[in-house]
Amino acid sequence: MKKALCIMSGGMDSTLCAYMAKKEGYEVVGLHFNYSQRTQDKEKECFYKICEILGAKTVEIDTNFIAQIGGNSLTDRDLEIRKTMSDEVPNTYVPFRNGIFLSIAAAVAERYECEAIYIGVTQADGSGYPDCTAEFIKAAQKFINLGRVYQSTVKTPLINLSKADIVKEALNLGVALEYTWSCYENGVVACGKCDSCRLRLKGFSKANAVDKIAYAKLS
Amino acid sequence: MKKALCIMSGGMDSTLCAYMAKKEGYEVVGLHFNYSQRTQDKEKECFYKICEILGAKTVEIDTNFIAQIGGNSLTDRDLEIRKTMSDEVPNTYVPFRNGIFLSIAAAVAERYECEAIYIGVTQADGSGYPDCTAEFIKAAQKFINLGRVYQSTVKTPLINLSKADIVKEALNLGVALEYTWSCYENGVVACGKCDSCRLRLKGFSKANAVDKIAYAKLS
């Protein structure tokens, strides 16, 4: 059975990707990264729960050097996570995170002969990170296959979907969205205010759907 | 002063690269990776010694997931390191190692605003690894700059040099080659038989120069 390595954060987008890979007939291998981000434990729990539901194999990799490099509010606790939308790249941008994740995925895919690598990037309705564009993924595809013996295809089924499209498609496929975590803050419930919560809530709202996860009461 | 991030293994090629970067007028920041390879302690010692000589800043990053991924004889102690030359990619090939190293270097370079990233790959006289070609580096350059806010240039001054050229250039620049380690085995002295020793010795021989490091007596 052909294998797909799915980079899975435990969030909504990458979870949908893994369901799509399974629907395409792949044996799903979930790949999760810990990088000492604020919500590491929550994301990991969601990752394992989703993989259990999907019957997927799991690979968990520690990349704590990302926190060592620093310079972003996901790993630096003394930087505040932005709560207002703006056109600038926000301080939640982790330098070249998707580049690092794709490179490690390439090594894992080569080792386990996974012919597809799924990554849930979206350029249509994201936070404006440079490592989420179609042009970047095209360059990644070339980089990955020129540098290895085994060849795989990078798949980004969400690249041009809006958050509303993502919610609709996820509900369509019966994705267990109630087990996903998107919030950048490590609260007991999602904050509802950070970029990631706002984008998620906007997606549900535009899709006329109800998000079943709990949010902090907004003042 | 403009900064160059130099990926340095503690071996001959990357050490020469760092000297070349310094000669080009850069402030050198040495970047070293530990990945539970057999010769981790020796390489690390060489890295720090060379950086001390160069007056370079140091960044040391643990990437032990490379050993977790496995599939190569540098990290898998139960695989034997090849001692005969052949045209096949040898089992010392670590899946996508340079891809991973360049991606992490890209993040470090973005964080510390290093306008150049030096990597000592050589396609002319290497072991035939796919992640050492000029075409691969060109793809890496595109991948790295498309995925980041800050832009840097990947420099590979050794890409077309033979090992003999490298030895000559290193002696020319007064590189402390006696403090470098190339052997794949973790012996008290270099084995003289692995691909890496053979290439190094061939380089010295063709350059009519003497390698001052100690080798095991060859039977």
From TrEMBL, chains A, B:
Its EC number is 6.3.4.20. SUPFAM superfamilies: Adenine nucleotide alpha hydrolases-like. Its cofactor is Zn(2+). Zn(2+) binds at residues 183, 191, 194, 197. It comes from the Bacteria. It catalyses: 7-carboxy-7-carbaguanine + NH4(+) + 2 ATP = 7-cyano-7-carbaguanine + 2 AMP + 2 diphosphate + 2 H(+). GO terms for molecular function: ATP binding; ligase activity, forming carbon-nitrogen bonds; zinc ion binding. It holds the Pfam family QueC. InterPro entries: QueC (IPR018317), Rossmann-like_a/b/a_fold (IPR014729). Pathway: Purine metabolism; 7-cyano-7-deazaguanine biosynthesis. ATP binds at residues 8-18. GO terms for biological process: tRNA queuosine(34) biosynthetic process. NCBIfam families: 7-cyano-7-deazaguanine synthase QueC. Belongs to the QueC family. This is 7-cyano-7-deazaguanine synthase.
